[in-house]
Design goal:
By secondary structure, the protein is an alpha/beta fold. It has 2 domains: 111 residues, Arc Repressor Mutant, subunit A; 299 residues, Transcription Regulator spoIIAA, CATH 3.30.750.200. It has a 9-stranded mixed beta sheet, sandwiched between helices. Strands 15-16-17 form a 3-stranded antiparallel beta sheet, covered by helices on one side. Strands 18-20-19 form a 3-stranded antiparallel beta sheet. Helix 8 links the parallel strand 8 and strand 9. The protein starts with a helix and ends with a strand. The protein binds iron/sulfur cluster.
């Protein structure tokens, strides 16, 4: 059997599996985690703890059909301003709850489109956020920029408020592909924003490419990747289009018969990977690339790369606190997610509560499996002696799972001294292999394609 046949037999082209940006994954969240638990978890943050803050802005000027983000299209700023008012109430309550001695090391504004905010919104939101806790001098403040919803004044406002990283969705520069996903964005527009960011001292720029979109061909994606390389980003994320119309209703607009088949997706991914690594980018985890001197590449080389809701990160903060509708927080004790709709979120905050409505408290078994899946997704190994150092002897119970995984994926793994290694020719299988460590996984779950 050649490698493709073996990957086929392992389920790469047929299985739908979680992305493992968290473990336990979101479908395991239940309504037993609410405002009170969230408040307790915040109050017990340790002295000297570092916080990563995520702010969700669930509004867009345009609604791209391929996008599964929780966001809503708006024609005026009225709902955005009403939401900002509620967000500031949530921030004030959180500021009263965060214990002394905790500082902010990271902040990320995502959405939706944070750049739907006007300059005065940006100033006032950051003014409120600065009351949460002291901000570390070397903090990172990153913002998702929608080139169609940004201008010089907004970039000025973000820069004067400390933005030092930016992330821009390119997806694909080919016009036919763009039309089929309801998102027109020229290379020139994107270049103008990249140049504008650099002119304002924002040196760290991430560009996202999506493979597996309708009408994408080897030629069209090749051209897009070359254009992305010309823009000289520090990091590139190469995400597979996840066609989940049962969850993201607007994906029903996507012409399904024009979607590349699984084997074509595999080839598109490999082609883009070759182009990026050929241009000097280092491949990180399953779908990220960075210049060798970028902090994420350095973290990966030193074994400090982590996986979170944004993909890969070098964020080692004690906790991530998500603000806004549908945001997910991660504490040492577990995960908590805010109410999903802006109305339900606002009602809770206006009633003087936190808005957490779902989540999961992590057992020791969850924590061990979470770390095991993270090392697999980041560094392609699971090492029980290493887990024992961190979590104690209870970690030994994963031994049985590693043996089972090795037996199932013998062509793609080695197992020596309780250390499972995923071989380079099998790294595409990382998400499938991770299912073998997931105590909750069932094949009935509705996830995205493995490739
Ligand atoms: S891709 Fe960005 S701009 Fe488009 S709908 Fe999603 S969040 Fe909004």
């Amino acid at each position: 059997m050649d490698n493709i046949d073996k990957l086929t037999a392992a389920g790469l082209f047929t299985r739908n599996v979680p992305r493992y940006t968290s473990y336990p994954t979101a479908p395991q969240f239940h309504d037993g985690i609410g405002s009170e638990t969230f408040e307790n978890w915040v109050k017990t943050l340790p002295e000297g703890g570092k916080l990563s803050i995520y702010v969700h802005i669930p509004f867009c000027e345009r609604l791209c059909w391929f996008c599964a983000c929780r966001t809503q299209g708006v024609k005026s700023l009225t709902p955005v301003e009403a939401y900002l008012d509620v967000l500031k109430i949530e921030i004030a309550k959180l500021a009263e709850t965060i214990p002394e001695g905790v500082t902010i090391a990271r902040m990320h504004w995502g959405g939706g489109s944070p750049t739907i905010l006007q300059p005065d919104h940006i100033d006032s939101l950051m003014e409120a956020l600065r009351t949460l806790a002291p901000i570390d001098d070397d903090w990172e403040f990153s913002v998702e920029i929608d080139p169609a919803a940004v201008n010089d004044d907004k970039l000025d406002a973000l820069a004067r408020n400390g933005m030092n990283r930016a992330s821009i969705g390119v997806q694909d520069f080919d016009e036919r592909v763009q039309k089929s996903i309801g998102r027109l964005q020229s290379y020139e527009t994107t270049k103008g924003i990249v140049d504008g960011l650099r002119a304002r001292g924002v040196d760290s720029i991430n560009l996202d490419i999506v493979y597996g979109l309708p009408f994408q061909t080897s030629e069209s994606l090749g051209k897009t990747v070359d254009q992305v390389i010309e823009l000289n980003p520090d990091r590139v994320a190469l995400f597979g289009y996840a066609h989940v119309p049962w969850m993201a209703k607007r994906q029903k607009m996507i012409p399904e018969d024009a979607l590349p088949l699984p084997l074509e997706r595999f080839e598109l991914f490999n082609q883009a990977t070759e182009a990026l690594t050929g241009a000097g980018y280092v491949a990180l985890g399953i779908d990220h690339f960075a210049k060798p001197d970028d902090s994420l590449a350095i973290a990966a080389a030193e074994g400090r790369m982590r996986r979170n809701f944004q993909g890969y990160t070098d964020d080692l903060c004690t906790a991530l606190v998500g603000l806004g509708a549908s945001s997910i927080s991660r504490f040492p004790q577990g995960y908590a997610q805010n109410r999903a709709t802006t109305n339900a979120y606002s009602a809770e905050i206006n009633a003087g509560k936190f808005s957490a409505a779902r989540g999961i408290a992590m057992s020791l078994d969850d924590k061990i499996r979470s770390r095991a899946i993270e090392t697999l997704m980041c560094d392609f190994y699971v090492d029980i002696p290493e887990l024992k150092n961190e979590f104690g002897d209870f970690s030994a119970k994963l031994s049985k799972d590693l043996k089972k995984i090795h037996a199932e994926f013998a062509d793609f793994t080695t197992l020596e001294n309780d250390r499972l290694t995923l071989l380079p020719e099998g790294f595409h299988l990382a998400r499938i292999v991770a299912c073998g460590l997931d105590a909750y996984h069932t094949s009935a779950g509705k996830h995205s394609q493995a490739i």
